[in-house]
Amino acid sequence: EWSAKRLKEAGADAVKFLLYYDVDGDEYVNLQKQAYIERIGAECKAEDVPFFLEILTYDETISDNTSAAFAKVKPHKVNEAMKVFSDAR
């Protein structure tokens, strides 16, 4: 129901989106997430509103994000997610 235009009209001076992302996860799901973020970015650009993307990485195969197993893969997850969402589109 919200768009960058509607948020701006409601008085917002920026848009922030929290995205859960597993760079090694299901490719189809990740492509959908990427397309959604591209749309939000395009809307924000059109409305001249800053867009802040907060990425929370996770691993689909590790249920405990506080585990040693996740700690080992987290740097890879964060770095690769940043590469994906830092590309100019």
TrEMBL record:
Q: Does the keyword Lyase apply?
A: yes
Task: Give the Gene Ontology MF terms in alphabetical order.
Answer: 6-deoxy-6-sulfofructose-1-phosphate aldolase activity
Task: Give the highest taxon in the source lineage.
Answer: Bacteria
Statement: the UniProt record of this protein carries the keyword Magnesium: no
> Which InterPro entries does the record cross-reference, listed alphabetically?
Aldolase_TIM, DeoC/FbaB/LacD_aldolase, LacD_aldolase
Family (UniProt)? Belongs to the aldolase LacD family.
What's the protein called, per UniProt? Tagatose-bisphosphate aldolase
Q: Which organism is it from?
A: Streptococcus pasteurianus
